Amino acid sequence: MAALVLVIGNRNYSSWSLRPWLALRAAGLDFAVERIALYQPGFEEKLRRFSATGLVPVLVEDGTAIWESLAICERVAELAPAAGLWPDDPVRRAVARAVATEIHGGFTAIRQALPMNFRARARRRPVLGDDVLRQIARVEEIWTGCRRKCLAEGAPGPFLFGAFGIADAMWAPVVSRFHTYRIELSPLARDYADAVLALPAMREWGAGAVAESETMPEADALL
Q: Helical H runs in the chain?
């Protein structure tokens, strides 16, 4: 098995880092973690030791860098096919990829208005603009649509496509954001979010986030 090192940023703030970490944990692969605190003196130079982008996450596999979160998750699925990180059915697999890609490339209003922050569980909720509310409605549409299909088909598991997979890993930071800011959800969407929050790996990441000492003023402004 290849030697794997996942380079991540702050657990409390780096939503991009959380995604492949969850995928690696779900796959049951052995990997080391190199944590680089973002926005601290010299952090960019440290990151460029691993990737020319100067961004996290990066998966280093036997010395080769894979520097983009969804690409890392795809590689994890290849390394551990038995983990079932994508649905077996080709049509469902295509839908899962569409769901994962939609959050990967969009929802900027949610990202900006509701920054990920595990330490801010008592945080007050900001006034949400129409663009944020529209995106929250789209999140609910995706989550409930996937869950309704699973329930109708009798698919086991409480996640978007039954068992936990890459689509869920990609949406996990949004689940965390909605929990932090107490976003109201429909019962079906809430059940899904609760299932993600209850994952042992999600709890482990959250505990690590709470233990961190670094702060980012723009992410902590609403405390």
A: 15-27, 43-47, 69-79, 90-105, 108-113, 130-153, 166-180, 187-197, 200-211, 217-220
Q: Per residue in 94-153, pLDDT tens? A: 999 999 999 998 999 999 999 999 988 656 678 899 999 999 999 999 999 999 999 999
Distances, alpha carbon 60 to alpha carbons 50, 55, 79, 139, 194, in Å: 8, 13, 13, 32, 32
| Distance in angstroms (rounded) separating the CA atoms of residues 49 and 42 | 11
Instruction: State the burial class of residue 116 (Cβ atoms within 10 Å of its Cβ: 0-12, 13-18, 19+).
Output: buried
What CATH class is the domain 4-83? alpha beta
Residue carrying the six token digits 């945080």: 123
Architecture of domain 90-207: Up-down Bundle (1.20)
Write out the DSSP string of 154-165: T-SSSBTTBS--
User: pTM score, two decimals?
Assistant: 0.95
Q: In what order do the strands lie in the sheet with 64-66?
A: 32-35, 4-8, 58-61, 64-66
Question: Hey, where are the domains in the chain?
Answer: 4-83, 90-207
